[in-house]
Specification:
Layout (H helix, E strand, L loop, with lengths): L1 H19 L2 H15 L4 H39 L5 E3 L1 H16 L5 H18 L1 H4 L3 E3 L2 H18 L5 H22 L1 H8 L5 E2 L4 H20 L24 H27 L9 H40 L5 E4 L10 H24 L6 E3 L1 H18 L2 H26 L6 E2 L3 H4 L1 H12 L1 H21 L6 H4 L1 H7 L7
Parallel strand pairs: 1-5, 1-6, 2-4, 3-4
Helix pairs in contact: 2-3, 2-12, 3-11, 3-12, 4-7, 5-7, 5-8, 7-17, 8-18, 9-14, 10-14, 10-15, 11-12, 11-13, 13-14, 13-15, 14-15, 17-18
């Protein structure tokens, strides 16, 4: 029996490490299986697999390039001003758990792989029985699942340090599986509207944030419209700037100019002496052209990322029909949040990133002024991907004004919430915390409930997650499943025209 279990665990570990944690291959596998179920010709199956996989690799290349182009600023602000602080970043957070979980709780990080397996199975079962659960999205972003499983492991151990290995794995799997299913399900409607029925949801670290800010911007926009302020819901793509300002109508030009302004100020503050000493600039290199290149490369990598989105999304959504029809009717895949940056106004992502950064930097300054026990250093992943995506959704739902306001609020909350939870549970002392929107808001809230209510708190958290999709369904019973099964019919039902 032990030998069989070890063999099965070895198969799962191989799958998790080489496919589930490698989103490009996971997306490729979904396309492969979907096309096989649709009985496509063999060369169409291979073609779809390759296009989806390569497309996702292009997206990753763009994402990694964006991170690298911003690295001098992240590292520079920390080193130049001698900030010994915690970095809010998924990879720093995962590393903090890896280093600290044994020292603080005497537990092995290897349990996160079992947690990942059990929670993933629960997510699939919840969608399979959507008639009762009202859940429509399968979380497929494996690398994100590993990061979240690690952080959730720490938070549960903080709340229940004496709970046995098997009981805590069972409890965590149920709560985390519910979070994955409920969170990605929250993004279905707003993503379908943004992409005009591309048939995917978001499976990432800011799912509750996307839902909240999309709803908030829509509500504020409608409220303003009732007062006669029709300009309130004007989107960035609807704005045609006159005269010399017309160059901002081209997103590549506008991104370059905005980043030149944004990067330029910070790099001037850091100074060429520091940048040369840190190895970011070469000795004798022109400081002006270094700033220019860094700023323009940001626009280059953003364009690469958007190309990757266009390459793989069509294959994924078309092929998932086979899986949906056979195994998970009415469901959509939950994928990386970067996918939405290829939709809506391209400028919305840049605006969202910039105002989110302003919010983060302001809150970091407030933490310094208030002598916070934990000083936060901004990580690029929450800085960009949370706030850029929120900017895209808010621009689509509420207009350009909310593409600025909502990411700014998000930036404030990311830093304040992360500083609170990481200090309280002890992760700050290991140098990092996941730090993205849901993990600076929703999960601190869950942790407070479980810490102070004990086992009852687990039931309360699970009940909250179970109720959310039921409330969503009650708000639109006729269109709730229609939005994924027949988007055009859903638009007719709700009076949505292509012009809107």
């Amino acid at each position: 029996m032990d030998a069989v279990l070890k063999f099965l665990m070895a198969i799962w570990t191989y799958f998790a490490q080489n496919i589930l944690q490698q989103p490009a291959f996971m997306i490729g596998l979904i396309v492969l299986v979907g096309y096989l179920l649709e009985k496509k010709k063999w060369y169409e199956v291979i073609s779809g697999f390759l296009k989806a996989t390569v497309g996702y690799f292009i997206l990753v290349a763009g994402s990694n390039g964006l991170v690298q182009s911003f690295r001098p600023i992240i590292v520079g602000l920390k080193d130049r001003f001698h900030l010994h602080a915690m970095v809010i970043d998924p990879y720093f957070g995962q590393n903090a758990v890896t280093v600290g979980i044994m020292k603080r709780f005497g537990r092995s990080f290897a349990d996160t792989m079992l947690l990942l397996l059990f929670a993933y199975i629960i997510n699939i079962l919840l969608v399979r029985f959507q008639k009762y659960t009202k859940l429509r999205s399968v979380f497929t972003t494996g690398n994100v699942q590993v990061q979240q499983a690690a952080t959730a492991f720490w938070l549960f151990l903080f709340c229940f340090p004496h709970m046995g290995r098997l009981p805590i794995l069972i409890v965590m799997s149920i709560v985390l599986g519910l979070y994955w299913a409920v969170g990605s399900n929250l993004t279905v409607g707003s993503t379908q509207e943004l992409t005009d029925g591309a048939d995917f949801a978001i499976a990432h670290q800011q799912m509750f944030g996307i839902f909240f800010f999309a709803k908030l911007s829509e509500w504020l926009s409608k409220r303003a419209a009732k007062k006669g302020k029709k300009v309130e819901n004007k989107r960035l793509e609807d704005i045609e700037l006159p005269g010399f300002l017309s160059m901002f109508n081209d997103n590549m030009v506008s991104t370059s100019i905005l980043m030149l302004f944004f990067f330029g100020i910070i790099l001037v503050v850091l100074g060429p002496t520091y940048l040369i000493h840190a190895g970011f600039m070469e000795k004798g290199q022109s400081f002006f052209f270094y700033i220019l290149q860094t700023s323009l490369m940001f626009a280059v990598y953003l364009a690469i990322l958007q190309l990757g989105v266009r390459t793989f999304v069509n294959e994924l959504t078309e092929s998932f029909t086979g899986i949906s029809d056979r195994w998970l009717p009415g469901s959509v895949p939950g994928i990386d949040v970067a996918a939405v940056l290829g939709f809506g106004s391209p400028n919305a992502a840049t605006i969202g990133f910039m105002f989110g950064a302003l919010g983060q930097f302001l809150m970091i300054g407030l933490l310094l002024i208030m002598h916070s026990p934990t000083i936060v250093v901004a990580g690029f992943i929450p800085l960009f991907f949370d706030n850029a995506a929120i900017g895209v959704y808010c621009n689509n739902r509420g207009g350009y004004k909310y593409a600025m306001i909502c990411p700014f609020i998000s930036g404030l909350v990311q830093v304040a919430g992360s500083a609170f939870i990481a200090t309280w549970v002890g992760m700050a002392s290991y140098g990092g915390y996941l730090g993205m929107f849901d993990w600076a808001t929703v999960w601190p809230f869950f942790t407070v409930i479980m810490k102070y209510l004990g086992y009852v708190g687990i039931a309360v958290v699970a009940l909250i997650l179970i109720i959310i999709p039921q409330l969503q369904y009650r708000a639109d019973p006729e269109g709730y499943f229609l939005v994924t099964k027949d988007y055009e019919a859903w638009k007719k039902l709700h009076g949505k025209s292509d012009a809107e």
